[in-house]
Design a protein that fits this description.
Number of strands: 34
Strand order of the largest sheet: 1-2-4-3-5-6-7-8-9-10
Helix content: 10-25%
Strand content: 25-35%
Structural class: alpha+beta
Largest sheet: 10 strands, mixed
Distance between the termini: 53 Å
Radius of gyration: 27 Å
Shape: flat
Length: 643
């Protein structure tokens, strides 16, 4: 395999030019291209290309490449920058491209190179300085080119805005999530780093060994030997991670993360944004359908132009002060609907967290997950996901009773008994529809379990965050496997016993409309809704409370299939298909500043736990044209009688 093909297999080549394609450009601006060699703090020369629009620029965008790439892969940003009045500087990070230095994995030397480049830009009279006398700087880039942005912003306060694309939050977690080495990605990146570093230009033994930092060789070999990241490796990676320095970053950041990204998962993007927001830094999250992925398109063309527009709007706001970018707290790609949607968080503030126990899903008892040693489950690198050995996986099914959307990061709290000194479990979510089982975004979340064999313990960990629309009749399946081909396998112990009653799934759920506000009459009244519980048994009753502030307005609420309205606080009618598209309880007459509520009886005789959604509430000025009120969905669990 040649170098170019290898980098493509590692998922880095396509990411190098994720943006900067000019897809969003209405016209091409003229600019000059100049090659420079910029001296860094230690005398190392930084191979650099500067693009300046004809007539000059008032600000600069800095862009650099992904792991194993070079500055040529991001020169496509030039048109995007110039078309919007920005200069652009691109450079080879240490050890890659034309650089003769040593790859330090986004360490202090690479960060110092960024500061040297800003000094270089400050001296260029064609690029105007800002009101404070400093150059106006934004940064953009993917993967390795995303991580350097956050590391540099923690040190150099001359950087005004960031757009890190598929960056990392904590490299220790990225490469060894919850104590389980990510063998597939680590091996690909290690090989790609050696192949693409300076050893390719002059492949003598010294260059092949010293093209990357010796610490990287040590980390890789020791992790494989120990089957865990050594403590000195954690310290090395911490210095290069946002997690250790977020409190020093005050630069507004538009973080773009990939839903199917199996190297730097959506959870990492969410953690970056939350860390920055906790310190009052303006940060937004964009989730798209690409990234470090071997089974999806790393750079989906249909989404690139929109992301480019978001990036320029972000720069214009935070570099030039040109008003608000208009970006939501969360913008996410709905792969089933083929469009970007918005929410106020991941999960949204109005999401319901349903928490079935595994006993609710599979009955009382225990599941033994046998460690096969050799991987019998696949996820990251193959399009057809399998759990080939039934003894090495346990599954738990949540039946979907009415349309809903999962949006956020699920969590598992497991009561487990290890059958050896160390065991691994791999949690994943499948969407089962019409008999077809799909591993959501090809994602899997591992956890290492250590302790005295035979002694029960509680283990809590996050699954990989996702967005997915489920229709009534679908199944959300949680699988717990003992191995996965993308990771190392546990070398000790026969497996794990999972106690169903002591284990809980936490799942963030919103209604099928995703909380979108239908507008119209819903703008003239304030409507909220709540349920008196989140879990019920067959034949039991639930009270649904609606609160209307303002009006007058007609009000109706969607009722899940199989649930019967038994009573209400005021006169009502029930409608159902084909008269209406859904089942509704509609209150008679217009409502003003009132609290209409009703009691619904759950269906009986179910042998499977199912999730149902009440709402959203709808309002109308005339009782004929209805508008959805966002944030009024309530998801409940109906626990099967036989479980």
């Amino acid at each position: 395999m040649d170098r170019r093909a290898f980098l493509g297999a590692a998922g880095t080549a396509g990411l190098a030019s994720l943006l900067g394609t000019g897809l969003s450009a209405a016209q091409e601006a003229e600019f000059t291209r100049e090659e420079h060699s910029v001296e860094s703090f230690d005398g190392v020369e930084i191979p650099t290309v500067l693009f300046v629009p004809d007539g000059g620029a008032d600000a600069t965008i800095m862009a650099t490449h992904g792991w194993g790439g070079s500055k040529s892969s991001v020169e496509g940003y030039a048109s995007l920058a110039a078309n919007n009045g920005y200069a652009l500087v691109v450079w080879d990070q240490r050890g890659f491209g034309e650089s003769t230095a040593e790859v330090g994995l986004s360490g202090p030397k690479e960060v110092a190179d960024v500061s040297a480049l800003i000094d270089f830009l400050e001296a260029d009279e064609r690029i105007a300085d800002g009101p404070d006398g400093d150059p106006q700087i934004g940064m953009i880039g993917a993967s390795y080119g995303g991580g350097i942005q956050l590391n540099a912003a923690a040190v150099d306060d001359r950087i005004d805005a960031l757009v890190p694309v598929v960056p990392w939050h904590d490299l220790s977690f990225s490469l060894e999530p919850n104590g389980v080495p990510k063998l597939g990605w680590t091996t690909l990146l290690y090989g790609a780093g050696i192949a693409a570093a300076r050893g390719v230009q002059s492949p003598d033994p010294e260059n092949l060994q010293r093209g990357v930092s010796p610490r990287l060789h040590e980390l890789y070999t020791e992790t494989l030997a120990r089957n865990e990241l050594p403590s000195e490796g954690e310290a090395f990676l911490s210095v290069r991670s946002t997690a250790a320095k977020a409190d020093r970053i005050d630069t507004p950041s538009l973080v773009v993360q990939g839903l199917p990204d199996t190297l730097f998962t959506p959870n990492e993007g969410e953690r970056i944004v939350e860390d920055l927001r906790s310190d009052g830094v303006d940060s937004r999250l964009v989730l798209f359908n690409g990234g470090h992925t071997a089974t999806e398109t790393a750079r989906p063309d249909e989404q690139v132009a929109e992301i480019e527009d978001m990036a320029i709007a972000w720069f214009d706001q935070h570099i030039r002060g040109n008003g608000e970018s208009g970006l939501a707290s969360l913008t996410y790609w709905d792969v089933q609907q083929g469009r970007f949607r918005e929410a106020d968080g991941f999960p949204p503030n109005d999401a319901t967290v349903v928490e079935p126990t595994l006993a609710d899903l599979a009955g009382e008892g225990q599941s033994v997950v046998v460690n096969t040693g050799v991987p019998t489950s696949t996820s990251h690198f193959v399009p057809q996901n399998t759990d080939a050995a039934p003894v090495s996986v346990a599954t738990f099914d949540l039946e979907i009773g009415s349309d809903l959307e999962v949006l956020g990061i699920p969590e598992l709290s497991l009561s487990v008994t290890p059958l050896g000194a160390r065991a691994f479990l791999f949690g994943k979510v499948y969407h089962v529809s019409d008999g077809t089982e799909t591993l959501v975004n090809n994602q899997v979340a591992p956890v290492a379990i250590e302790g005295t064999p035979g002694e029960s313990q509680q283990v809590e960990f996050e699954l990989v965050g996702f967005q997915r629309n489920f229709s009534a009749g679908d199944t959300l399946r949680v699988a717990l496997a003992s191995t996965d081909a993308g990771f190392t396998s546990a070398r000790q112990g026969a497996g794990v016993v999972v106690d169903h009653a002591g284990s809980t799934l936490s799942l963030p759920v919103v209604g099928s409309d995703g909380g979108d506000d239908g507008g119209g009459d819903g703008d003239s009244v304030d409507v909220s809704a709540s349920s008196d519980g989140t879990a019920f048994t067959g034949g039991s009753h639930t009270r649904q409370e609606l609160t209307v502030e303002g009006g007058p307005t007609f009000v109706r609420d969607r009722v899940p299939d199989g649930w019967i309205v038994a009573a209400a606080d005021r006169a009502y009618t029930r409608t159902a298909p084909p008269e209406t598209t859904e089942n509704y309880v509609e209150f008679e007459g217009a409502v003003t500043d009132a609290d209409p509520g009703y009691v619904a009886r759950a269906p009986s005789g179910l042998d499977q736990t199912q999730a149902y959604t009440f709402g959203p509430v709808e309002v109308s000025e005339n009782g004929e044209e209805w508008q959805v009120v966002g944030g009024t969905d309530r998801t409940v669990l109906l626990v099967g009688a036989d479980l």
